[in-house]
Specification:
409 residues; alpha/beta; Rossmann fold; Molybdenum Cofactor Biosythetic Enzyme, Chain A; 2 domains; three-stranded antiparallel sheet; 18 strands; NBD_C; NBD_C_sf; EC 2.7.1.217; transferase
Length: 409
């Protein structure tokens, strides 16, 4: 094992795993810390946690448990994968987790690198942009769980972390960076560096400067060039497609996912809206939804609860946690029934929704296959290799994502 990775949610784990595979490293993804004693037969092991929205104490504890397991299995380098749009609330978990892992691994510094230019996430002058728009002005500013109210990574990190964060000027060469590093190490026990990352080709420079650090943190933007440094074989993937029925489940309220639902409907795809208010009142039930799905088993059907931010805010007046819990449970129920009914293609949109489905289905590990779009791979459960699963972050993918996922699975 070369890299041991912890991810803050399930789609984040599959995201970074896909880029390691694309770069040529065999990769497995586990949901939570594996209960197996031996290291997986792979060059990269990704452990998907649920630390993005977890309470801080448990998020840190679970992260350290995963890092220690990876250390025991012989990982040489470690990577903390968090959302490429960061978590900009002062109570966010990125700082506490990174602080604790730095201390656990006894490293003096690491980088904060959320950039992923291929998906429109870039860092310029230490500020995070989404498709050229500052984070706090992008559609992500209204995220229902982690609203994005700032775009300056130093200002985002300072309230969360015990250690200082320093920006690296975009035009700094390796010698200047090394001089800055030496100065910082004289002044601070531990600290973070924030490099700019505006173009895909910037990744090569960043890997050249920081690729051998014991600990890296960020989005998945560095995984592909890191993998190319160590690869021993051609691009991985290559699993056969399935010809079974498919069910698509969408819980993300992101603009990208809502556009993908619209495109699917306009293409003639069958859809069903899971109304949160009706679900809470009992007017809507999993049984009723499953009856509709069963009637259309010969064709793919998309069940979604995604809605516009203003409607989501109105619904959340019923209780944000209760609404989210009921929707996630219903979606997981549908996925479980689908697998039992031999739907061998399960396609899910939304980080929290994907996590709920993955937890319910109970598969412990996945082989990582080809990607539907950057950061969204096809995954094959180690325990049942008939199944093809796709879990995507709400913001990922082009408008025809669901159509592509059906075609490629």
């Amino acid at each position: 094992m070369r890299f041991g990775v912890i991810a803050d949610d399930f789609t984040g784990g599959s995201d970074i795993a896909s880029f390691f595979v694309k770069g040529g490293l065999s990769t497995v993804l586990y949901t939570g810390v594996p209960d197996i004693g031996e290291a997986p037969n792979a060059e990269v092991c990704v452990i998907a946690l649920k630390t993005r929205t977890q309470n801080r104490k448990d998020a840190v504890s679970n992260s350290l448990e995963a890092i220690r397991w990876l250390k025991e299995q012989g990982a040489k380098q470690f990577y903390i994968k968090y959302c490429s749009t960061f978590d900009s609330t002062p109570e966010g978990n990125i700082g506490p987790i990174c602080d604790a892992v730095m201390e656990e691994l006894d490293v003096p510094y690491t980088i904060l690198c959320p950039g992923l230019p291929v998906n429109g996430r870039t860092v310029r002058n230490g500020c995070l942009y989404v498709n050229g728009v500052p984070l706090h002005q992008s559609p992500m500013k209204n995220h229902p769980l982690t609203p994005m109210r700032n775009s300056d990574l130093v200002r985002l990190m300072d309230p969360q972390s015990s250690f200082p964060s320093m920006k690296i000027p975009a035009d700094a060469n390796e010698e200047e960076v090394n001089e800055q590093l030496a100065k910082l190490q004289r002044e601070h026990t531990r600290f973070y560096l924030i490099p700019d990352y505006e173009k895909e080709e910037d990744a090569e420079k960043l890997v050249q400067m920081f690729g051998e650090l014991k600990l890296l943190t960020g989005g998945s933007g560095l995984a592909y060039p890191l993998a190319k440094m160590y690869k021993h074989h051609a691009e991985a993937g290559g699993f056969e497609p399935s010809h079974s029925p498919a069910i698509l489940l969408a819980g993300s309220c992101s603009e990208a996912t809502r556009n993908q639902i619209k495109e699917f409907e306009q293409s003639g795809g069958k859809t069903y809206f899971m109304d949160p208010l009706k679900l809470i009142s009992g007017e809507e039930t999993v049984e009723r939804m499953w009856d509709v799905i069963s009637q259309h088993k010969g064709e793919s059907i998309l069940v979604y609860s995604s809605d516009a931010p203003e409607k989501v805010r109105d619904i959340q007046q019923q209780g944000k946690e209760e609404v989210a819990e009921r929707l996630e449970k219903a979606t997981a129920d549908l996925a479980e029934r689908a697998v039992q009914a031999e739907f061998h293609r399960i396609i899910v949109a939304g980080g929290e929704t994907s996590g709920a489905v993955a937890k319910r289905l109970g598969y412990k590990g996945y082989h990582i296959g080809d990607s539907i779009s950057p950061g969204v791979p096809i995954m094959i459960p180690i325990e049942d290799q008939r199944i093809r699963m796709v879990f995507k972050s709400g913001n990922f993918g082009k408008p025809d994502f669901f159509l592509q996922a059906l075609s490629l699975t």
